[in-house]
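name: query_chain
kind: protein
chains: 1
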Amino acid sequence: MVRIYTISTCSWCKKVKQYLDEKEVPYECVEIDTLPPLEEEAAVRELMALTGNVAVPVTVIKGEPIVGYSPDEFDKVLNNED
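structure:
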């Protein structure tokens, strides 16, 4: 499963979702700014643990976090390329 961390106003976050939709990759979206306060705090802690900061979008594919919009990196991890 792919998980993406986003905020509702982020254009790069929308690009990640559009890219995954076009590739027909199922994903779970954590839209941080729409979560209740306690869940938002938990999501921010998850981001900090994954990347050391709270920048979005963060796409986690097969346990590997990818910060930003990077189709080449997405494909590399999805296709198990080295």
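note: Strands lie at 2-6, 27-31, 58-61, 64-67.
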